[in-house]
Design a protein that fits this description.
Blueprint lengths: L15 H8 L5 H4 L3 E5 L3 H13 L2 E6 L16 E2 L11 H11 L6 H21 L24 E2 L5 H19 L2 E5 L1 E9 L2 E9 L5 E5 L2 E4 L20 H8 L4 E2 L4 E7 L22 E5 L2 H8 L13 E2 L1 H5 L9 H16 L8 E4 L1 H14 L7 H27 L8 E10 L2 E2 L12 E3 L17 H21 L13 H18 L7 H16 L5 H21 L11 H25 L23 H4 L1 E6 L8 E6 L14
Parallel strand pairs: 1-2, 1-9, 2-5, 9-17
Antiparallel strand pairs: 3-4, 6-7, 7-8, 10-16, 10-18, 11-15, 12-13, 12-14, 14-15, 18-19
Helix pairs in contact: 3-6, 3-13, 4-5, 5-13, 11-12, 15-16, 15-17, 16-17
């Protein structure tokens, strides 16, 4: 085990980023056109990075397994993007955004990276407005803001319930400009299968053309991993079904340390599981918690009657409703952080108060908001004594203007009208705070290999605050990586083009072909999804919303057994030399089966509860997370040693010089 160096600049935290930019090496414009950069993943982080690097003059190759970057999972981030603009005049600042993010992550993130994130957040909004992103505006024409969980200010910029999609269109348009200029070569329907390391530096990748099956070599002076998170290790999650860990995991196996894999976020506001054959869960934006009130019946018999179809939620009187978040956390109410809200919902359902047939759901109710907005709308329209019908009609109009597409989506999926009947929600796997370990430069432990956005671990600690994923992805891509990667590439101006005819490329390609041949030739009896579903159940039941030592030890054993069975009995139909969706799934599930064991191993070693990592043995009397700062105030970064059970942990000690370490309280 070693202690990792994060390469954070010296000096006061508010000056570090400025000092860094003033002192780094630069690449002059004439030399940039002789340097190649590969970007794997073209969501918000990868798309913004590719566009910016190409604009600066670098030659960029982008890779995404979708048919278009527009299909990146970033479009699913509906609710908004944080920035410390303080347009509301409610006391926001760079420091408060920094503080809220560190506190929200339960004091398990690197202070310096988070402060830089807060510092550049305002630039993101300016950039996106210039690109034409249609952010919501208030009556005076200024950009509007709303609140998200874990904060006491309104700093979330939004475009209805389509924020991620609109931001991605902005990044995509910037990419297209560079594609048209010839500065970006876009390789869509290509999947990275291996990182190529030459003389200790990342010098390219091996990719598979998902249409033809061809294995390709691509070289560059640096490689950027922007492939998102690994939530689909649980099978059921809010992630797109194609989201996977392969690019990050193959990078890990080539020497990049994997940090805090057990830090996984469970989002409290998802449509509940409806059946055993379901393959994906749907997220209802956290923005809904601004106006929706979460409750279950106070009486268990009412919950039972609802589950049996004998009672409707609209028949439960106000005094018989338990608004449990408002009761337990009066200061923040329904806007507590996601990990807190998720565990509270689980506690109520485990106690027998769940409201769907499976007993695994709570209500998200907009009745109060409709009445409040309706009265306000009537009053401002000159109707001083509106009827109840008019109040409801006007209130629904206001709610529709703010959340209409989300309400429509819910109704299409559930066949229930959320304007009339409360939504049913339950927590689900959503985001992964763990990822490839990176230093202040966003470089992994493999020189020349960078990781940005959800693919790295750096900014969110043990729990991500809502609307911070888009902020981190665009901060990394537009405003951080273009500086830090230049500092590294300044040493490559005389290197010349990287050849793909070296033994390192040959060995990497051979390794990929061997992996594919091994999977194709198993000729077992079970489809890939059989193993993925079994893995997901192990992960959810024993490494999910709450964990304990016994369950994690069982999970490690069961995952290893399942992996052995996978390689003996998986059936991959079709050929390797053509389009083959089953082969794609098989390579991804093979990586999930390795990651899952490291995930459980990481969760077992961390004998504390913090953020999204809740160990049942370590909780307060009232069920809140109990951190152990004396023994676990560090990042756990794992080095691959042949198989997950033999991974070696390295530590990065976390220092808190600008924020006082204390127990989180939202009461």
């Amino acid at each position: 085990m070693s202690v990792l160096d994060s390469k954070v600049p010296q000096g006061p935290i508010a000056d570090k980023w400025t000092k860094y930019k003033n002192e780094i090496d630069l690449v002059n414009p004439a030399n940039k056109r002789n340097i190649d950069v590969i970007v794997v993943g073209t969501g918000l982080a990868g798309g913004s990075a590719a566009a910016t690097l190409a604009e600066l003059g670098y030659n960029v190759k982008t890779f995404c397994f979708q048919d278009s970057p527009r299909r990146a999972h970033s479009i699913a981030a509906q609710g908004g993007i944080n920035a410390a603009k303080n347009y509301q005049g409610d006391g926001d600042s760079n420091y408060r955004l920094f503080y809220d993010t560190v506190k929200g992550g339960d004091y398990r993130s690197r202070e310096e990276n988070v402060y830089r994130l807060a510092e550049v957040s305002g630039n993101i909004i300016d950039q996106c407005v210039a690109q034409g992103v249609p952010f919501a505006r208030e009556y005076g024409g200024l950009l509007d803001n709303r609140s998200f969980g874990g904060v006491l200010v309104s700093r979330t910029f939004y475009a209805k319930g389509q924020t991620g999609q609109q931001l991605l269109l902005g990044a995509y348009s910037a990419m297209n400009r560079q594609i048209n200029r010839g500065k970006i070569q876009a390789f869509n329907r290509h999947e990275m299968m291996e990182l190529v390391v030459v003389d200790g530096k990342a010098r390219g990748i091996i990719a598979r053309d998902l249409v033809t099956g061809e294995i390709e070599r691509h070289s560059a002076h640096a490689v950027v991993i922007a492939s998102g998170g690994y939530g689909n290790v649980f099978y059921l999650s809010t992630n797109a079904m194609g989201s996977n860990v392969t690019a990050a995991w193959r990078t890990h196996k080539k020497g990049a340390f994997f940090a805090n894999p057990c830090y996984t976020q469970i989002h409290p506001t998802c449509i509940p599981v409806s059946g055993d054959l379901q393959a994906k869960l749907t997220l209802m934006s956290e923005s809904l918690r601004n106006d929706g009130r979460i409750w279950v019946p106070k009486k268990k018999e009412d919950s039972i009657a609802i589950r049996e179809g004998k009672l409707k939620p609209t028949q439960i009187d106000e005094e018989n409703r338990d608004y449990y978040l408002e009761r337990r956390y009066p200061a923040f109410g329904n806007l507590v952080p996601r990990d807190v809200a998720s565990r509270a919902a689980k506690e109520r359902c485990d106690a027998g108060f769940g409201v769907n047939k499976q007993g695994q759901a709570v209500y998200l109710d907009f009745k109060s908001a409709i009445h409040r907005y309706g009265k306000e709308k009537a009053f401002t329209s000159g109707h001083k004594n509106p009827s109840q019908e008019e109040i409801i009609r006007l209130g629904k109009q206001v709610v529709e203007s703010k959340y209409g597409n989300l309400f429509d989506m819910y109704q299409k999926i559930t066949d229930e009208n959320p304007y009339e009947t409360p939504m049913m929600i339950y927590p689900a796997v959503h985001y992964t705070m763990g990822g490839l370990w990176v230093d202040y430069d966003l470089m992994t432990t493999v020189p020349g290999c960078y990781a940005i956005g959800e693919a790295n671990f750096s900014d969110h600690g043990a729990n991500r605050l809502g609307a911070s994923a888009l902020m981190q992805g665009l901060a990394d891509g537009y405003f951080v990586l273009p500086y830090t990667i230049g500092n590294y590439l300044a040493d490559d101006i005389r290197t010349g083009e990287i050849s793909t005819d070296s033994k390192e490329f040959e060995e990497a390609e051979k390794s990929v072909r061997n992996t594919i041949d091994k999977l194709i030739n198993v000729n077992g009896e079970k489809p890939v999804d059989y193993f993925h579903r079994k893995l997901g159940l192990i992960m959810w039941n024993k490494s999910g919303m709450s964990r304990n030592a016994k369950g994690l030890e069982e999970a490690i054993h069961e995952i290893a057994e399942l992996r052995d069975e996978f390689y003996k009995n998986v059936r991959v139909t079709g050929k390797a030399e053509s389009k083959n969706a089953e082969l794609e799934k098989a390579t991804r599930v093979a990586d999930f089966l390795e990651l899952a064991e490291l995930f459980a191993k990481d969760a077992l070693h961390r004998n504390e509860s913090c953020g999204g990592h809740f160990r049942e043995e370590y909780q307060t009397e009232d069920g809140e997370a109990m951190r152990d700062d004396e023994n676990f105030k560090y990042v756990a970064a794992w080095e691959f040693k042949g198989k997950p059970s033999e991974a070696v942990m390295h530590k990065e000690d976390l220092n808190f010089e600008n924020i006082e370490l204390k127990t989180r309280s939202y009461k």
